[in-house]
Amino acid sequence: MKNKILQELMDQQGQYISGEALAEKCKVSRTAIWKHINNLRKLGYIIETANKKGYRLLENNSLLLPAEIQKHLTTKEIGKNIIHFNSIDSTNSYAKGIADKTPSGTLIISEEQLSGRGRLGREWESPKGDGIWMTLILKPKFPPSEGGKLTQIAAASVWQGINKVLGLKSLIKWPNDIVINGKKVCGILTEMSAELNQLHYLIVGIGINVNNEAFHNTIADKATSLFLEKGEKINRRALLCEILNAFELLYDSFVKEGTLKESLNICRNNSAILGKEVIIQQGANQAKAKAVDITEEGLLEVLTEEGKKTEILTGEVSI
Ligand code: BTN
C-alpha cells in the first residue's frame, strides 16, 4: 500500500492531491493514507501537507532511498532488502548487530556516518549526502578462508560502476582501495563472523567519495572524490545501482563456479601496483618488493629484494 500511495504522489509530479482522492484511488480510509504518509516520511520522503489541498511529494533525487534504488536493480539477492538511515555511527557496526537475523544480500546505507570505520582502526570521513556509505551482509556457504576474496569482488564492481556511469578510468590498489590520479576515492572494509570451519556472515563495507568538495587537511593530499576528478556533480543513485548490479554478477559467478576469474581480470587489468616497485607495511614491518600478480586466491604475489617470490595475504601497499 505504501508503494501504491508513493506512486500516486509521484504521478502528480509535484502537484497536490487531496487525502480524499488518494483514499479513493488506493481504496483505503483517509486515516490509513495519513498513517502511510507518515511512514513514507520516516523513510526520508519529503511530503508537504497543506490545508484543503492535501499532499504533495517534493522532488527528492538526492537521497539514496530504498524504493528509488530498487527500481533500478536487476539483482535477485543483492539489495532486495535495504535499510536506509539519514545518520548512523557506522553501517558496518549496524550490520554486525543485525546480521544474524537478516537475509543475505541485505544492504545498509546511510546518508552520513558519525563514526565511519576504515581499516586498521582508522576513521572514515563520511559527510552527509556526499558519498556512498554502505554495507552488504552476505551469507555464502563457503569456508571462512574464502572471506577475504569478497574484497576483490567489491573492488571490481566499484571499478565497473565508476567506469560505466562516469566513463572515468580508476585503478584498483590491492587489496581494498580504488584510486584516481594517485588519490583514494573508495575504500573497502570486509569483516566476518565465523567459527573454525563455518562462516556465519560477511560484512562488506564500501565507502565512496562521490560529491565531496574538500577533505579534512589530514587526508587532503591522499583523498579525492569523483566530483573533483570529473568536474561535475555525480548522480549517486545511478552509480550505486550500477555497482550493486555488477556486484551480484561477479559474486554469483564466484559462488557458483568457485573462481574469482572475472573479478581478478578486472583487478589485474586495472591495477595501480602490478609491475611496480612497492613498499609493503605489515604491522611494524616494512619491506620493498615488486608487485608481480594477484593470485587465483586473491593474494598479492611479490618479488622481494632478495629475489624470492612470495604471496601476501594482507597489508598496506604504497608506491
Ligand atoms: C578503508 O579504506 O580503510 C576502508 C574504508 C571503508 C569505509 C566504509 S563506509 C561504509 C562502511 N561503514 C564503515 O564504518 N566503514 C565502511
From TrEMBL:
Catalytic activity, per the record? biotin + L-lysyl-[protein] + ATP = N(6)-biotinyl-L-lysyl-[protein] + AMP + diphosphate + H(+)
Q: Which residues bind DNA?
A: 19-38
**What residues does the BPL/LPL catalytic domain cover?**
67-255
Mind listing the GO biological process terms from this record?
protein lipoylation; regulation of DNA-templated transcription
Write down the EC number. Answer: 6.3.4.15
Cellular component GO terms, alphabetically? Answer: cytoplasm
Tell me the domain of life. Bacteria
Functionally, this protein is described as follows: Acts both as a biotin--[acetyl-CoA-carboxylase] ligase and a repressor.
UniProt similarity note: Belongs to the biotin--protein ligase family.
Q: What is this protein called?
A: Bifunctional ligase/repressor BirA
Instruction: Supply the source organism's classification.
Output: Bacteria, Bacillati, Bacillota, Clostridia, Peptostreptococcales
Q: Which gene encodes it?
A: birA
